[in-house]
Write a structure and sequence with these properties.
The chain has 275 residues and is an alpha/beta fold. 47% of the residues lie in helices and 11% in strands.
Length: 275
């Protein structure tokens, strides 16, 4: 049971050993420059409350799961390397299971700070949010990692946001799980056909601007022969293509146009695909 303060609001604060805690997979990674800055300018009077969930019943080797304050906790530990106990007042929320902790983490950190897209996605995935789970399943199927998050894969994509947009494009639409293709998966196949034989080119091609340009063209022209498109891209100068996609994104032009230009190069009449 938690006490209520004089205004009738539940008081979740209590004095706890903040070292008796764990940071779970949904938590964002430690950003060393930020942590070092806090370390250099640390003020005991301004440290603020850390937020935990009580997890004693799960027998995870700690009593608390950290929801907010990772950098501050790291600094406290760095300043007290020989201590195993550090008592301070903190906000301790009542027990909830792992999925609910991940959901609360996303809500808390999205409201209180500028949470990065990757960190927010990580929390949504750990809480089994549909779009995040679908995106991760497709990435795993194609052996594609995300720079700054999942990096033990054959390929590494720079741009989780566009990956999720394309991977979940059909979600919510009528019979979306029965549709013929997934825009992200098909875009990846185009790039693998075009550049999969060359590790250096493939590394350059796995860029959000390429995925956005190809993916949006495939969405608009779903019957485009993606295998033919991949072979045509193989013939083009990759640096030039990257520049074309980047220029269209920067100027607000339809970013799928360079894809159609590649497809249509050398074709005449009905074989060409119009906008």
């Amino acid at each position: 049971m938690f006490d209520k303060n004089k205004d009738g609001v539940t008081d979740f604060t209590k004095r706890v050993n903040v070292f008796d805690s764990i940071i779970e997979p949904f938590g964002r990674g430690l950003y060393k420059p930020n942590a070092n800055n806090i370390f250099k300018n640390f003020d005991d009077e301004l440290v603020g409350e850390l937020t935990f969930v009580d997890i004693k019943k799960e027998n995870l080797g700690a009593s608390l799961s950290l929801l907010d304050g990772q950098h501050r906790l790291w600094v406290i530990k760095e300043r007290n390397p020989k201590r195993v106990r550090f008592m301070m007042r903190a906000k301790v929320l009542p027990y909830r299971d792992y999925k609910k902790r991940a959901e609360r983490y996303v809500v808390l950190n999205t409201k209180r700070k500028n949470l990065s897209y990757i960190d927010a996605f990580k929390g949504r995935f750990e809480s089994e949010e549909e779009k995040a789970v679908l995106t991760m399943s497709i990435l795993e199927k194609l052996d594609i990692g995300i720079k700054g998050y999942v990096e033990d894969r054959k390929y590494s994509l720079k741009g989780l946001s566009i990956a999720e947009q394309l991977a979940t494009y059909n979600v919510g639409k009528k019979d979306w799980n029965k549709r013929l293709f997934n825009p992200f998966e098909r875009t990846a196949k185009v790039l693998i056909i075009a550049y999969g034989h060359d590790a250096t080119k493939m590394k350059l091609a796995m860029d959000s601007v390429m995925f956005e340009g190809i993916g949006k063209a495939l969405i608009k022209k779903p019957h485009m022969d993606y295998e033919y498109l991949g072979l045509k891209m193989k013939e083009q100068d990759l640096a030039f293509l990257l520049g074309e996609f980047a220029e269209h994104r920067k100027t607000g032009k339809w970013i799928g146009q360079p894809t159609l230009n590649v497809h249509n190069f050398g074709l005449k009449g009905s074989k060409r695909i119009g906008c």
